[in-house]
Amino acid sequence: MTQNNIAIENRTGFVVFRPSLLQQRITAKHTVAVAGSSRGGTSTLAYLLARSDFPLGNVGDLNYEDKDIVKAINNKQVLRKLFIERNRDHDVWGFKVPEAGFHFDWLDIELRNPVFVYVMRNPASVARSIIARDPIYGTNIRGFADSLNHAFRYYAHFAETLKRLQSPVILVEYETIARSPVEFCKDFYACLGINIAESEVLDIAKQISEPGYKNIINK
Hints:
Mean pLDDT: 91
Number of strands: 7
CATH topology: Rossmann fold
CATH class: Alpha Beta
Strand content: 15-25%
Number of helices: 10
Distance between the termini: 38 Å
Structural class: alpha/beta
Low-confidence stretches: none
Shape: globular
Number of domains: 1
Strand order of the largest sheet: 1-2-3-7-6-4-5
Order of helices and strands: EEEHEHHHEHEHHEHHH
CATH architecture: 3-Layer(aba) Sandwich
Radius of gyration: 17 Å
CATH superfamily: P-loop containing nucleotide triphosphate hydrolases
């Protein structure tokens, strides 16, 4: 199927834009960038990568965010230096930073053979997660509405950016992961060309279906 001359492939719980180019990139040196709304499920995808020993940069907490890139996300000069260092150390590497979605246009040019993974979660679920964890938003109607707008801002920006990107994009529907965790994990790893044992996939699928899975990193 094509839309605006961009090939689209439906997979188990996600959609791949430019699948042919994706297959070319995963056989070469490349970089995987995971983004989406905060409280939107990006940690689940980063967890999958971490469990496969995929290099995710300077990860020092249970959110799997690269501290160096988070700190420098608005400093292009520092980011370029980081990218050079990571490219030198790894043929294949990646990072998870939710706000990186606002910089995909620039990253599309600056990263080495980028593959973008964007996670979308039901905005109502994002809002509920935000108000449960961030007292700034409160628990009243206005706080919930502001939390909804938080998710909409991320997703609306991504939708516009998607029209311009030249690199492969994997758009993940977060809710489908819980419905078919084994099938999702198998297809996601296969899509990225990551070889991982069947027993490991089954354990990962089990973990992401239960609370507390973030406590197991690079098992």
